[in-house]
Amino acid sequence: MYERLYERTEYEKKSRTVAVVSYITWVGWIIAFFMRDRSDTFALHHLNQALVINLLKIAGGLCAALPGIGHSVSAVAGIAAFVFIVMGIYRAANYRTDPLPLVGELHLM
């Protein structure tokens, strides 16, 4: 009686898994990078966004070494990165390719 209207294919399931794993630290990003299909634009989109977020975390960490407001800048960057990661995982799990605010328009890959 209650049939699923749209059943995901195995390719879409793997693509979604790769996209979600890419947001989980650098190790997850590296694993997802090697797991992905080279022609998978969905996974590439999320790998790119996760890479930008990871670089934001590194830049925020480096700001902590600055005297004065360095720790404040580092804290703001860390909170922003956490929010972007949660948003990215949510969008990847729902098979959406909406760009994240601020970091979604940067293309490194």
Structure in words:
By secondary structure, the chain is mainly alpha-helical. It contains four helices and no strands. The chain has helices spanning 10-22, 25-35, 41-63, 70-93. Helix 1 (10-22) packs antiparallel against helix 2 (25-35), helix 1 (10-22) packs antiparallel against helix 4 and helix 2 (25-35) runs antiparallel to helix 3. The N and C termini lie far apart (45 Å). The mean pLDDT is 86.
Chart the SSEs and their pairings:
Layout (H helix, E strand, L loop, with lengths): L9 H13 L2 H11 L5 H23 L6 H24 L16
Helix pairs in contact: 1-2, 1-3, 1-4, 2-3, 3-4
The helix count comes to: 4
**Uncertain residue segments:** none
**End-to-end CA span:** 45 Å
Structural class: mainly alpha
| Whole-number mean pLDDT | 86
What is the helix/strand order?
HHHH
Task: Report the C-alpha radius of gyration, rounded.
Answer: 16 Å
Give me a quick take on this structure.
The chain has 109 residues and is mostly helical. The chain has helices at residues 10-22, 25-35, 41-63, 70-93.
Sum up the structure in keywords.
single chain; 109 residues; mainly alpha
